[in-house]
Amino acid sequence: MVHNATDLRRNIYKILDRVLETGLAVEIVRNGRRLRIVPLDPRPVTERLRPIPSLIVGDPAAFEHVDWSSEWKP
User: Fold this and answer.
1) Where do the H-state alpha helices sit in the chain?
2) End-to-end alpha-carbon separation of the chain, Å?
3) Domain limits of the chain?
4) Nearest Cα to 30, choosing from 4, 8, 7?
5) DSSP letter, residue 20
């Protein structure tokens, strides 16, 4: 996302928190030049995943002993 210096000044903490939360860089345009705010140690992708409770309907443990061998084809 690209911001100008005025947006950065107005929302600096919100912008910095978003960079830390998402791990994505933010670009700032100042006097026609671009600057980039990037976290030095981005969070791993697995930490950024959000749970989707409705993905598995029922008890996930019920899938533990299901025999899928008849469905598998090499």
Assistant:
1) 5-22, 45-48
2) 44
3) 2-63
4) 4
5) H
Distance CA 60, CA 40 (A): 37
Largest Cα–Cα distance of the chain, in whole Å?
A: 64
For the chain, what is the total number of helices (H) and then of strands (E)?
2, 3
- pLDDT tens across 28-57, in order? 999 999 999 999 887 777 877 888 877 777
Q: What would the two tokens of residue 22 be?
A: 């998402």
Give 2-63's CATH code, choosing from 3.40.1620, 1.10.260, 1.10.520, 3.40.50: 3.40.1620
Residue 47 is predicted with a pLDDT of 77
Task: Read off the tokens for 37.
Answer: 């705010």
What are the structure tokens assigned to 67, written together?
């025999």
